Amino acid sequence: MPTAESAADSGLRAWLYAAGTLALLLVALWWALIGAPTEATMGTIQRIFYYHAPAAFASWTALLLNAGASVAYLARRSPHADALAVAGAEVGLAFLSITLVTGPIWAHPVWGVWWVWDPRLTLTLAMWVMYAAYLILRQVTPEGSLQPRLAAALAVIFAADIPIDYMAIRWWRGQHPAPVLFGGPNSGLAPRMAIAFWLSVAAFLALMALLVQLRYRQELQRNQVRELRRRRVLQEA
Amino acid sequence: MGSVVAAYTVAWTILMIFVATLAARQRRLRRALERLQGEPPAGAGAGGAETHGR
What we know:
The structure holds two protein chains of two kinds. Chain A is an all-alpha fold. Chain A has one domain (about 50-230). Chain A is about 80% helix and about 0% strand. Chain B is built from one helix and no strands. Chain B has one helix spanning about 1-40. By secondary structure, chain B is an all-alpha fold. Helix content of chain B is about 70%, strand content about 0%. Chain B has one domain. The interface of A and B includes residues 215 and 225 of A.
């Protein structure tokens, strides 16, 4: 059992972490909008990249967490692993939504169209649909031992889309720009652009970790409420 | 510049909606936990009036 002091310490740590994340997000926002130089070809519109790509990184990380937790659940049937899987999927879907919305806002003035069925775009949209279906399935199936098992099995299958989505712009030629990072000798960013980009990546990953942790604790509390209700029903019967 | 503002606004809006949903769910859960841990089950304890045919 945690003591009152350790609970207060943990609460203080959580608040400090949240405050640090908010500060990092604000610093990253300043760098993205003001600190980074304007790109020569695209102009100001290129600044969308500082949110679009880090949001994709954060979503992939959260969804990989969902896959890892699902494998752990299938191996050990731990409710903690199941709670982490739900948290990873929900947070991953939120960041994936940011990627999917900011992409077309950048594409419209640059390509002249909001959307093309390019491999990267199609795979990202498919990923959003899969994880939305995963979360809906968890809501609509009756609670019981089969629901988390089915969800975990689906999560492991859906996770195959993550590395394919990452590699899509390396394997196939499409409309999506070539990789700016880890894309070979012609890729890379100017030093001040790199600062803005990596600050945004760090801020989004820190926020992702914070939201996953909060949602994970919430899911454990939900299990606790369910268990208390079940006991209450048994006592009243 | 309009597209940049739109993109950043949408990103922050999605995050704010997520955080607001999380907070609302947390309030509901806390209330449910307090109710379940605070009240004795119906029919249990000395005050179980409904079991005495009133």
